[in-house]
Every structure is written in structure tokens, then in C-alpha cells.
Please model this.
Amino acid sequence: MKELIEQIAARLVDYPEQVSVTEVETENSIVLELRVAKSDLGKVIGKEGRIAKAMRVLLSAATSSHGQKKCTLEIIDD
Model:
């Protein structure tokens, strides 16, 4: 799932080399923390959060079809 989010985000931004996804596993779920360059933050979130929501839907569909733990996406603003 980490690779899926990295690939999507890298294609959306101007600085794909600054895209990083950190996986934090808890007992019940996996949290993917997405970090991008400050100037690319809006591109990953999209108007009214549409792109971020679409990535979360894809992530949810991918994890539910494989029977894995629930995955959530957090976009980190450093």
C-alpha cells in the first residue's frame, strides 16, 4: 500500500524526489504518513480535498480486497 501512495503522489507533484511515505503500524490498523514539498502540498490535497479523498478511497479499496488491516492516509504538513 505504501508503494501505491508513493506512486500516485510522485506523479502529482513538481518535486517527486521529496515524496516520502512512512508506515506506522498499530494493533488494528496501518497509518500511512505522506510528506511532500511545501509547494506541492496543495497538489496532493486538491480542491476541497478531492485528490486526498480519492487516494483514501483507492487505499481503502485496495486493503479491503486483500483482507488486510485497515489503512488510513495522513498528509503531514511539516
